[in-house]
């Protein structure tokens, strides 16, 4: 199957059934015309013929990804072709390639949910970006490739002074952190925020935003002293290494029995339970993920006793449910980065051919901050 055969959620956004049929017809026309050696289409769609690009493909779940040449797709009027420079590795990409993510892709598929790159070509109706602009974008798949075709509304300009690597590290992790801390937990200046897996991509972003944007006091909890130190450098004022201490007891000591106002929790299992116990009166715990693999149950009496709230955050879902909020998290992240309030930490760079090594590096808990695949 060509990578161009199925559109991503972002690209399908706003498209009615008639438009989708047109698109399918266009793809078929393109393939027929390519075989005939023709390069133009009569129905208004632009065709970039004989062009190919490399992409990482998941052909079989749980098996290593392979790098394949794919044919470029023609652009629809609202679409933008981006030459991808960097693609962020997300836990969700790895889960998707194992068939364990909540959103399932039909095989074969190219993972990759966030990218930075340069605009190569724009559709006829696009005015928000132009050839040569540096952009970041978000999708639910397909960004782990040299080229990505995006709906123009899913692209944001990279400000001056922000590198491709930094920019690619922003959307998912900082978007989620901003949403969790601001929109969901309503974190106030001076409140105490406990962040678990505090040196992970989401965790370190949460430390950065809570400490440096929201002026909260951050307790970073992580699985090694090296990771704790990184979170302290990022702005946390205290840390707990939960690989050899009991998180609940340590937080109790650090807060002199008071507890924390907000928890940003990405691990699940027993760490979630200890973090829930660490909340103070009217505290809020935000369920972000289950990196440890165990989805915890919440005893309702714990919520009642201290008037605490447990809430979820699913950043990607805002894209469909409330696009202005979704878009605002990305714009804010770019703005905070340009103004120097936050600084994404790129822990490691891998090449496209090293994508399987990059995935292992993350699952083996070796990574800190964002792991980036550099493509050009
Ligand atoms: N809800 C949302 O919208 C949203 C958005 C982004 C991410 N997420 C989720 O948040 C979680 C973290 O994502 P991320 O991108 O920040 O991942 P990451 O950078 O890989 O960080 C995950 C961290 O979790 C800790 N961890 C504990 N047990 C683990 C285990 N068994 N395997 C792997 N890691 C383990 C590790 O830190 P220590 O070694 O310090 O324990 C690891 O560094 C994932 O579940 C992801 O799906 C959710």
From TrEMBL:
Protein name: Enoyl reductase (ER) domain-containing protein
InterPro entries per UniProt: ADH-like_C, ADH-like_N, ER, GroES-like_sf, NAD(P)-bd_dom_sf, Zn-ADH-like_protein
Gene3D superfamilies recorded: Medium-chain alcohol dehydrogenases, catalytic domain, NAD(P)-binding Rossmann-like Domain
Transmembrane segments: none
Domain annotation Enoyl reductase (ER): ranges: 60-373
UniProt source species: Sphenodon punctatus (Tuatara)
Similarity-based family: Belongs to the zinc-containing alcohol dehydrogenase family. Quinone oxidoreductase subfamily.
GO molecular function: oxidoreductase activity
GO cellular component assignments: mitochondrion
Top-level division of the source organism's lineage: Eukaryota
